[in-house]
Amino acid sequence: MINNKLDIKLKQNLIVTQSQILSLKLLEMNQIELKEYLINEYESNPILKKQELEKINLQSIKTKHISNKTNMDEQNNTLDYAIYYDKNIEIELLFQLDVTSFSNKQIEIMKYLIGLLDDKGFFKYDLKDISQLTNYNLKELKDCLEILKQLEPEGIFSENPEQCLIYQYNKHWQTDDEINILIKNNLQDLLLRNVTKINKQTSIKQEKIREVIDKISDLTPYPFYNKADSQPEYIIPDILVSRINNVWKIELNDTFVDEYTYDDYYLSLIQKAQDEELKKYLNINLERARFAIESIKKRRNTILKIVKNILDRQENYFLKNQPLKPMTLSDIANDLDISESTVSRAVKCKYMQYKKMYLLKELFSNKVNAQGNSSKEVKNIIKNIIDSENKKSPYSDLEIKDIVLNQGIKISRRTVTKYRESMDILNSSKRKK
């Protein structure tokens, strides 16, 4: 009798442990993995009933494809264009925006403009022509185009490779009108490293020309570089965040995950079934269904609470572009009275959308000194120092430490070395050109 009781207790403990493991796995899943799990569970469990949600049918952009040339047919009032239109491109670009900040008409215009991109990510149309052929006024088109130009990949909606490189150059390094003109008028020679020729044509010092050549070699002349030849890849955010009336609005991006409930027919069959084997089978599946439904609810609540805590802690980062504050998994766990491993699993491989895309785990960083500076903040400072250094005489780690100290941040040389190596940046002797 004692052995039987012990055996039952061990089996119960095993069931609890398996349930806990599955619950933790569900917490780790991103939205696509979660949907796959629910589909498999639904197909194997008669108790689960799919509750279809009303789907929003987004109107696709009407486009007209031609293969060879672009022209304007004024008589027919139509715009012909050769484009590289892919619904994935639209999703990838619009996901970077906080769509709640724009009107329906602005979103409609931006979708239309996205549809006019060519296979390299360039936008080669005159907005005046588009305005004449649509019901969009010129100012609306200009405003929306400027918004789209700020998105990634860098240089998207440029007119040509020169404009694309100028945009990237000005974003990463100090704006210089002389360099902008150099790239615009001498790109081919820059790519061929014809330093002497450029020097004679422009009177720009050879040292500066070489510096420009080195910098643009790290840039890409095409926003959709190699995209037309490959399967487009894009990230679907797990969490959608907006700011309304100074309050965070947080929701899981799971509208594509079907809601599930219990099938009334099989619930009544459990009560009516005379066959004990059938009743046992249905009860087992009822427990599985109950576990799945309750675990999904718990997962949602846990992720939403964690994201809310992150947003509250890093509010100045998101709203005022200030550096990330030091924040660890333990900090969140203590605030919410949950385990550190729960926080770790909840943020694992999950993306949050607020104006742009954030990988949740990248919002965490340790404190590196008594002043409370975060490791990510210090890494960014070190990277900016190295990016702006003279490549003929790059800074040593000791010199970088002193520059950082002059900015009021106290760190050791060993910390500089550690962070530099973690960013895959070579030491000064190997960076020298």
From TrEMBL:
InterPro entries: RNA_pol_sigma_54, RNA_pol_sigma_54_core-bd, RNA_pol_sigma_54_DNA-bd, RpoN_core-bd_sf
Gene3D superfamilies for the chain: Homeodomain-like, RNA polymerase sigma-54 factor, core-binding domain
Domain (RNA polymerase sigma factor 54 DNA-binding): residue spans on this chain: 280-433
GO CC term, one of those recorded: DNA-directed RNA polymerase complex
Keywords: DNA-binding, DNA-directed RNA polymerase, Nucleotidyltransferase, Sigma factor, Transcription, Transcription regulation, Transferase
Metal-binding listed as a keyword: no
Pfam families: Sigma54_AID, Sigma54_CBD, Sigma54_DBD
One Gene Ontology term from the biological process aspect of the record: DNA-templated transcription initiation
Domain of life: Bacteria
Keyword Manganese among UniProt keywords: no
Gene Ontology molecular function: any one: DNA binding
UniProt domain RNA polymerase sigma factor 54 core-binding: residue ranges: 86-266
Similarity-based family: Belongs to the sigma-54 factor family.
NCBIfam families in the record: rpoN_sigma
Protein name stated in the entry: RNA polymerase sigma-54 factor
The organism of origin for this protein: Criibacterium bergeronii
Encoding gene, per UniProt annotation: rpoN
